[in-house]
Amino acid sequence: MTLDTLRALAAEDRLADFGVFHSTEDDAPGPGTIVLLGPDEPGFWAHVTNAPEFADTRPDPLDRWSRRVISALADRLGGTALFPFGTPLHPFMTWALRSGRAWASPVQLLVHDRAGLMVSYRGAIHLGYRADLPSTTSDSPCRDCRSQPCLTACPVTALTSGGYDIAACHAWLDTGPACMSQGCEVRRACPVSRGYGRTDAQSAFHMERFHP
Ligand code: SF4
Ligand code: SF4
Q1: 151 CB near ligand 2 (under 6 Å)
Q2: Domain tally for the chain?
Q3: How far is the CA of 146 from the centre of ligand 1 (A)?
Q4: Which among 186, 178, 189, 183 is positioned nearest to 201, based on CA atoms?
Q5: Which band of pLDDT confidence, cut at 50, 70 and 90, is reported for residue 2?
Q6: Residue minimizing CA distance to atom 6 of ligand 2
C-alpha cells in the first residue's frame, strides 16, 4: 500500500492528506507512519451533510461520521484509526507541527499550508511501518505574509498576538455577529484560509457548537 493509494481512498470521502510523519516508540500508537486527514475542500460539507449521521437527532454528527469513515478506511489499509476527540486523547497539535505542514501563526493558532487558519483534523491513520514520506519543503505561509491580517481582524481584539481572551470572544458572539454565521473573522482573514474553500455553513456549524 502506498500513500497514493491511501489518498485515493480517502478522497472518496472528501478527506485529504493533511500531513504525514514517522512515529516512534515514544508515540502512543507505536513506531510507523501517521497520516493526518482533513476536509478535502471545496465539497467536503456537501458530502458529509448527506451522510446518515446528519439525518438523525443524535449529537456530534461530524465526529460520528469521522469515526465511522476513518475507522473503515483504516481497516481497509491494515492500520489504526486515531481521533482528535473522545478518548484516548491524542496530541494532534503536536503531530500537526511534526508533519511539517502546519506552523504556529502570529495569533498562536495553527496555520496549515492548504487550509490556513481554517485547519481542522478529522482523524488520522497509523500504519505499522515506515512509509516513504513526501517532501515537505514548504515554509510557513506567514513568512511571506506582509500585512498579516489575522493580527487585526477580531472586532473586539479577543484574539491577537497577545493571546486569546475567551470571555471577550463569547461576549461578542452573544451579539450575533458575522462570526456566528461565517466563522471567526481572524481565521477568515488569512489569505490561505480564503483560498481553501470551506463553506460558511460548515463554519456556522462549528461556531454553534463553540457558542451554543
Ligand atoms: S494571515 Fe498571514 S500571518 Fe496570519 S496566519 Fe495567515 S498567512 Fe500567517
Ligand atoms: S470568533 Fe469573532 S470575536 Fe471570537 S476571536 Fe474570532 S473574530 Fe474575535
Answers
A1: no
A2: 1
A3: 9
A4: 183
A5: confident
A6: 184
For residues 180-191, one letter each, b for 16 or more C-beta atoms within 10 angstroms of the residue's C-beta and e for the rest, the string is bebbbbbbbbbe
The per-residue pLDDT for range 80-135, each reduced to its tens digit, is 999 999 999 999 999 999 999 999 999 999 999 999 999 999 999 999 999 988 87
Domain that holds residue 118: 3-210
| Calpha distance 70→76 (Å, rounded) | 10
Question: How far, in Å, are 36, 53, 74, 98, 137 from residue 103 at the CA level?
Answer: 15, 32, 26, 9, 13
In this predicted structure, the answer to whether residue 144 has a pLDDT above a threshold of 70 is yes
Query: Could you tell me the three cell numbers for 190?
Result: 488569512
Residues with CB under 6 A from ligand 1: 105-106, 111, 116-117, 141-142, 145, 148-150, 189-190, 192
Provide the residue type at 208 as one letter.
E
